[in-house]
Task: structure prediction
Amino acid sequence: MSHKKFSVINTPVHNIDGIAKVTGRATYTFDVKLPGMLYGKILRSPHPHAKIINIDTTRAMELPGVHAVVTGKDTLGIKQGIWRRYEELCDEQILPLEKVRYIGEPVAAVAAVTEEIAEAALDLIDVEYEVLPAVYEPLEAIKKDAPTIHEGVERNINVTRHIEWGDVDEGFEQADYIREDWFKCSGQHHMCMETRAAVSNFTPEGKLTVWTSTQSAYYHQALLAGVFGLREGDVRILAPYVGGGFGGKFEIDSAQFCSGILSMKLHKPVKIVLTREEDFIASKRRTPMFYYVRTGMKKDGTFVARESRMFSNGGAYTGMGATALYLSGFFHSFPYKWQSYPYDGYRVYTNTMPSTSMRGFGAPQAMFCSEQQIDWMCADLGLDPFEVRRKNGHTEGYEVPGQAFIASCGLEQCINEIEKWVKSKGKLPANRGIGISSCGFMSGGIFNWFDSPYSFSSAVITINVDGTVELHVGCQDIGQGSNTTMAIIAAETLGVKVEDIRVHSGDTAHCPADLGAWGSRQTLMAGNAVKMACEDAKKQLLEFAYAEMGINIVYDLDIKDRWVHIVARPERGMKYEDLVKKALRAKDGQRIMGRGYYTPHRKGMISPAYSYMMQAVDAEIDPETGKIKIHEVMTAHDCGQPINPLGLIGQLEGAASMALGYAYLEDMPFEDGKMMNPNLVDYKVIRAPEMPKTDIIEIDTYEPEGPYGAKEAGEGLTNPTAAALGNAVFNALGIQMKELPITPERVRKALAEKKEAQK
Amino acid sequence: MKKQVLTFRVNGDEYEILIHPKTLLADAIREHVGLTGTKRGCDTVSCGACTVMVNGMSVKSCSVLAIQCEGMDITTVEGLEENGKLSPIQRAFLDNGSYQCGFCTPGMLMSSTAFLNEMGDKKPSEEEIRESIEGNICRCTGYNSIVRAIDAVAQGKYKEE
Amino acid sequence: MINDFQYLKPASLKEALAMYAEHDDCKVICGGQSLLIVLRQGMLAPEYLVDIKHVNELKYIKFDEKDGLRIGATTTHREVEKSDIIAKKYPALVAMEQKLASIQTRNWGTIGGNLAHADPAGDLAPVLIALNAEIKFGNVDGEKTVPLDEFFVDYFETQMGHGDLVLEAHVPAPEPKSGCAYQKFNLLDSEMGIVAAAASVVLNADGTCKNARIVLGNAGPTPLRVTKAEDLLKGKKLDDKLFTEAGQIASEEAQPVADIHASEEHRRHVLGVLTKRMLKKAFEQAQKAA
Result:
């Protein structure tokens, strides 16, 4: 179905920042250099758990070139967190006063005239620690006699989350077949190409400006104002080009905090860029999870009950991890209609780096467990996995009991398309298999744990005399292309061209507040705000056009491709730029301005809209060495109305590369609390030769809540891949992979166990 | 230790800079010459964000001492365009959406350019194209759009009339 | 962060050797692809650094049907990879180079630097040893040539002492009816092997095995010859059973060390598999060869 003939939407356009990025003109926080700027370095804890007895900075201060050394004592000591509504979840001091809780936690910071001197000064800071017993795994940390990581937090349980609908006992009673499994899902590092970085500039008038690599300028404005005791309006966050985010750049990081505190002390700009190693050990990661899953199915494949318990390794602090706990449990039910579904999630503190959101936000882990178990049960019962998924899948109009309403859903078409594709492949050679996984994802979260008093998204547009447009948005472009998406929506709505729009973002002094780039929220939420702002401005223009053109009021007017015209008689009209010039005069010289905003209301607990997809992974396994080669990834995808087709392909391919990494390459092993591979030699990020062919089939649906029918595209595509690879391995070799990543050694171990069982 | 004078050409212009011999080429370009298009993303010669061309060869400028480049010709991402006209591979990157956050893009472009120059009129296989950028990490795109861009240039789609 | 050093740039080999001999706390840099990482980590902090990257006397690839192949120490990996004569006479060397790190590293890194660094996971040494190569090194007082498999003595240690520079790798002319193959086991195409194996096979006119060499990479402190398995093959008519048996021996003889990338058991197992496969590949090449 074609909803509407678009002029701009779903046509191939270059990203509006493309020229800057392919010519080296794009400058990142990494490139910012201010006059008189000092360089900062951070001293980090070598212990996973220790009391800070004393910090002596005397020797460091004596080193020529050192301007300041700060410790927790130089701060206000405020415990902060991004879940601002809940005091107990604001648990982190970036420079702690009393104790350190993970290796890499900051304990002091230095500002000096060069980076080299700052680093040399770190060796001259004397810290006396009292080492405490530490615990690293959630299933150890919840034991009665485990060390206490945060005072007053029993059994180190940081947050719990219960989701339930239906009668689970009745559900399992109806089941013909019940299966239970334990799964272990690893952590994953965001590994943004630009490490965390900040340049803070505090000036004598009491105002702080921070250039930083962030996914939400507004969050950082509010959070930094909080910890520094400043008014929000006195903190200005500038996000120049941002070198990747993927869920890791929301919370206050050590570069921002330490450069800020140093700059406030010195009244000079201070720059801190984390090294790759610091970025690995002392930032955040995808939450590692242990999942227990018990599922009941009828003989005909009807899903009657799913009971699950999840224990996540929360690391030392809460951050955004509390959200992952909820979303993992919710998406673990996706995209199926369970008659009964109790989930209990436990987020457990450990003495490791904090865990947080990362692309998929708890769902890739949930899908790895759910989608593999479904395939295994189908195999056990001799059922067709496509048929079973179709039978139980979400459909338009379904309500996830007490949680969500599904207004648009292309799941069935996705399943049909992938089934066709898989069947077209015919019989595969030995040791090769295709695995499938379906899933869905949200289009922005409805939660407001940040306690923002502002609309979730806002936009302001101003039309200049020549018809060019200034679009001010608070949503953040981190490479996913949101500025281009907003420009497309603005151009479509106003009836102008993308090159007429200049997007202003990433500056809290000039852009309206917006929660930023997380949970796939911007296309829907900021997109709605932009659309509303443009409709507001367009209405003003058209009011004037009626008067100017002197036409009968029964006619509808519209603007398309810079042509203002009668809809029924498109040849009758005037040039858009002529209309703007005249309209301006009619408004006593005021530029035309439009305002728009969006906050979801009455859309359930989670999200205003959900994307759906099914993915197939074609993989070959060397049974002798266990090595996996990925041949192809095929995805059928319902994201509502695509806005930017080139950007959509980019999101699909990027998600596939990151999710494949999670499935079989990337891991964060710890020994005694120390990350064992904090560099790009030992941490394996997929490279071009390993990247398989990828393709996408877009399923056409219309989401009533989204701008022009659009919903989430990009983050959710990270969810199905690990499960689909697991199922490919199952189909190729008949082994069940319950631990991520699927390494050659784990494949061999599973093969050996299978052989043993067959004896 | 004493600083030394390094004379080299960057994007055709001769520079004379005073550096410590331990200065890496990447830092000489960014800090001394002042061209910040060239990025750095690791400390282990892994990510390729710092790739530049030295005498036409792609190298990782974080793995070369600047002083070793005395008298040599360095090309950085800023040297790819001519009077505002983008090079074929730059245009192909735009058309194929071969960048997202853009941080790896300068290095990717330099690896691609060196490879395409080396290929001349020869049409590389997909495997060769993939191997030509295997020293460069991109966390955003999944590489396939970059492979398509290099292939498009190699197939002559951006040849000047 | 790199410590300060005095940079020395000799104009000739003679001058380089003299500079190296003169300063005790001194290291040599050529391509520096390995050295700079070590310097940046502060694991080495020499007072002097002698740069031989531009010593062109050592930049050559020479081939002679009788004498074989001679590669000068400052020749880059990329020059080896792109050499027509090497592609023709020693295809295993070119195939290895194509998979050695990335183009950028091969463009700047040199074979002398690679061999002197003596990383047991290095790709170059196992192939050269399988090809029966020897290495020439020298100092102000003279030169010495030793078989390459004797050159390495421990992790990152060779027979060279202070003042010694790698000068040349020499590979004998290929024998008739011979083949050589190398493969590393890794997860990413461009990275070093978790383990690796090189094998060469030379056949007699009657098709029996005249000679075989098996070299394991990253399976101990140095590239590891598996002579016990080589002896098993010599004089025999080769088949899959023998290759499996040789692999078994290689697996037992190896001394791999576990780390986060693989357990000792997995390394041993894969070394056996690779040895078997490379022997078979080398054998099939030898059968086809003139």
Notes: The two ends of chain C are 54 Å apart (CA to CA). DSSP finds twelve helices and 14 strands in chain C.
